[in-house]
């Protein structure tokens, strides 16, 4: 009886351990943890220069440059990756590329918010993602289709938040009652 209990416990433990052991090897499709590091500089809310970085995991993927907004873009970018970094002014890699940085190159005096990484053996010009999402339509709309140039900061507190809610409440009620009739 004791042997059966021990064998059952052993089989149960193996059933739990074996499926998770294989996942530790599934980092990336080509045995790399990530492509490298893209370093960038931006100005924060207090006007201080800050350095940011992203570690792209794969090519042909759009990465937003963290802490950048429409009003606070990255102004200096250094490509310390193994791939070509295609830089864009908007936050979703749409439209025409602002610049292309080969591995090791540095770009100064720019205004970018996203990066798309491509293998370095591709010599074509890159004009957005080409995935059918209609990013960069050429209609002068910002990140989310606003025409006012506002950034996407959290305005859920402070005097501007109260003012924004007060102005939008009547519009909301008008639209609700307009649909009712």
**Gross CATH architecture of the domain at 36-118:** Sandwich
Top CATH class of the domain at 36-118: Mainly Beta
List low-pLDDT spans. Answer: 20-30, 124-167
Q: Distance between the terminal alpha carbons, to the nearest Å?
A: 77 Å
Strand content: 15-25%
Count of beta strands? 8
Reported by name, the CATH topology of the domain at 36-118 is Gamma-B Crystallin, domain 1
State the secondary-structure class: alpha+beta
Q: Care to give the gist of this entry?
A:
The protein is an alpha+beta fold and 181 residues long.
Structure notes:
- This protein has 181 residues and is α+β, with helices and mostly antiparallel strands.
- Helices cover 23% and strands 21% of the residues.
- It has a domain at 36-118: Gamma-B Crystallin, domain 1, CATH 2.60.20.
- The protein has helices at 2-21, 159-180, and strands spanning 36-43, 49-54, 62-64, 76-81, 84-88, 99-101, 106-107, 114-118.
- Strand 1 and strand 2 (49-54) form a beta hairpin.
- Mean pLDDT is 72; it is low at 20-30 and 124-167.
Can you lay out the helices and strands and say which pair or pack?
Layout: H1 2-21, E1 36-43, E2 49-54, E3 62-64, E4 76-81, E5 84-88, E6 99-101, E7 106-107, E8 114-118, H2 159-180
Antiparallel strand pairs: 1-2, 1-4, 3-8, 4-7, 5-6, 5-8
């Amino acid at each position: 009886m004791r042997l059966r209990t021990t064998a059952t416990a052993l089989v149960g433990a193996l059933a739990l351990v074996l499926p998770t052991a294989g996942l530790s090897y599934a980092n990336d499709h080509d045995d790399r943890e990530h492509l490298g590091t893209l370093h960038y500089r931006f100005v924060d809310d207090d006007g201080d220069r800050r350095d940011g970085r992203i570690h792209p995991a794969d090519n042909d993927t759009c990465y937003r440059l963290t802490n950048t907004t429409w009003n606070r873009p990255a102004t200096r970018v250094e490509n310390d990756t193994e791939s070509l970094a295609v830089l864009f002014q908007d936050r979703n890699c749409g439209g025409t590329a602002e610049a292309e940085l080969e591995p090791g190159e540095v770009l100064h005096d720019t205004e970018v918010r996203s990066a798309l990484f491509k293998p370095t053996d591709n010599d074509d010009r890159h004009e957005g993602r080409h995935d059918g999402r209609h990013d960069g339509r050429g209609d002068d709309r910002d990140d989310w289709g606003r025409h006012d140039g506002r950034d996407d900061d959290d305005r859920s507190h402070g005097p501007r938040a109260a003012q924004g809610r007060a102005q939008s409440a009547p519009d909301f009620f008008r639209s609700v009652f307009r649909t009712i009739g």
